[in-house]
Design a protein that fits this description.
Elements (H helix, E strand, L loop, with lengths): L1 E6 L5 E7 L1 H4 L5 H15 L58 H17 L3 E4 L9 H11 L4 E5 L4 H6 L6 E5 L5 H6 L2 E5 H11 L1
Parallel strand pairs: 1-3, 3-6, 4-5, 4-6
Antiparallel strand pairs: 1-2
Helix pairs in contact: 2-3
């Protein structure tokens, strides 16, 4: 099992914690990590582009002129694609870009991402982030003490003061254990987690 230092909000080492190898010491599967990131980005796409086909454009119910004898080419509707104001040929329609991953694949991808952060020494455990008030300056001071700029902060449930305190800090995002995802873990340079959050992660994913 990997041993990781535990820091306080002043950036001082106050102990160590043993991480569960079932979550933080697995074999990194880059293929599953890639799939998880692509899946999340694809699922976020709205896919709302739309144009009307000749069956959807209003008007054009009447044949513009008789079939024969006018000298014109035969026409059945003024809403056909060759007419101004007509429908679009093979018009784009809203589509769903999302695709699913199995639960086991998702869990394996998340464990791989967490393991890679531990191996790269970019996983910091902090004893607690308890603020008696909502104060952005205090949260920024904690980041400065840890010498971290771009970070994903994993908090235990109910830590509202810390969540809101970090809201206005650029390049910092807070998340809870139940919303932790591969994309965010890889997007930010460092993952900071409280001891309570680490315990929850091990309980859920071990």
């Amino acid at each position: 099992m990997a041993n990781v230092s535990v820091y306080n909000i002043e950036g001082k080492e106050v102990g160590t914690i043993e991480l569960n190898d079932a979550v933080f010491g697995v074999e990194v599967n880059e293929h599953l990590v890639h799939m998880a990131v692509v899946s999340q980005l694809a699922n976020n796409r709205q896919g709302t582009q739309k144009a009307k086909t000749r069956s959807e454009v209003s008007g054009g119910g009447k044949k513009p002129w008789r079939q024969k004898g006018t000298g014109h080419a035969r026409q059945g509707s003024t809403r056909a694609p060759q007419w101004t104001g007509g429908g679009v040929v093979f018009a784009p329609v809203p589509r769903d870009y999302s695709f699913k991953m199995n639960k086991k694949e998702k869990r394996a991808a998340l464990k791989s991402a967490l393991t890679s952060r531990v191996e790269e020494k970019k996983f910091i455990v902090i004893d607690e982030l308890a603020f008696d008030e909502i104060k952005t300056k205090k949260f920024q001071a904690v980041l400065n003490n840890l010498d971290v700029a771009r970070a994903l902060v994993v908090l235990e449930d109910g830590n509202k003061n810390a969540e809101i305190s970090a809201r206005n800090i650029p390049d910092v995002k807070t998340t809870r254990v139940n919303t932790l995802n591969v994309f965010d873990i890889l997007k930010y340079n460092t993952v900071i987690a409280t001891k309570a959050a680490v315990a929850s992660i091990e309980e859920v994913y071990a």
